[in-house]
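seq:
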Amino acid sequence: MIPSPLEVLKLAFDYIKLNSSDNLVDLGSGDGRVCLYASKYYGCYSEGYEIDKELYNKANDTNEWMKTNVKFFNKDIKSINLSKYSVIYCFPEYYNPIYNDSFKLIEFTKVSNAKIISLDYNIELLQLNKILEFNRYKIYVYEVS
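struct:
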């Protein structure tokens, strides 16, 4: 697992104007930093889905300590209904076959009225809105109506 740098999150979240009225989901939430950061600094409700039990437990432990408005689930991302989220964040670990197989099955084309942020991976099925760059990272931003 490679965690998303906080500077990348700040750049992306500032660009999309993340705020307390948003519902964010992190697909493959790892240690929970995306959801925790969004909740703490932008006030939005967040949910994270992580298949790795150890990372899921770490995220929940941190969440309990921070007392944020976040829920984590130990589930495969292909079972998620994305329609209730206004912001979808993902950092597909395309070199990891566990995440890659699930990621390919996500039906991004059925999402409406949402902003999608993908770190270092262009979701070719979607109309790209903007590419932000920070050091070696590319942040792909899509706005689906």
